Amino acid sequence: MDHVALFTxxxxxxxxxxxxxxxxxxxxxxxxxxxxFHLPVYSVYGFVRWADEIVDTFHAHDKAALFAxxxxxxxxxxDIRLSLNPVLHAFQDVVHxxxxxxxxxxxxxxxxxxxxxxxxxxxxxxxxxIYGSAEVVGLMCLRVFCEGNAALFDQLREPARRLGSAFQxxxxxxxxxxxxxxxxxxxxxxxxxxxxxxxVKRTIEADIRxxxxxxxxxxxxxxxxxxxxxxxxxVYYLKLFHKIRQLPAASILxxxxxxxxxxxxxxxxxxxxxxRLRAL
Length: 280
Description:
mainly alpha; 13 helices
């Protein structure tokens, strides 16, 4: 192996480690994909995770300056097809190999930059934030799964967006307290934290349920090599959503809902058997 290939392989391994350290659920989902998709999806997650860390974690530093530098390094890596930042090097390699749209990257970075400011969201900003922070991540992965099949990508584009939207909105519901208390954010348009009622919660849940239904319609059309991994993410978030739905609004403001590890294992087993029986 030449040294350039070794550097790229090592960069991918760094993104894999980041995924494993930051998200056991996402790591589990990736492992159920066909092996050829593992490193590309790890590379996408590593990029997304690093950007999110800048805006959500390093409060003692100038996050705007850090993010501006990360954005500059991202575009430089894409332009010259190299970065000494292993996360960005692995990401640019995937972008070029799978023809991931530059517009997806632009939208993602814009949404992450929005998180640098405490704000309330109107409907337009809410939709733009969800598109950039979640939907385009699903579209990046869809480019990988479709392996150059443009017609299949276009067919599954809208369901992939709706699935990413469902996941993000579930995150917003689960984290509504921490987002408000730690970051001064309320993502849901027109919702005041102090007036988060059961009625408001039910309205949000109806919107999420519609996204889940539209997203599932795309999962069953995915290439079989990718279907189980995406379905596992779907059933995990659906389980989390069902737990949230069973609680009153006051409980959501008082505790962070989780899916226990043993339940995740059962979800994995159930998903695997459905997949093997071709019920999925």
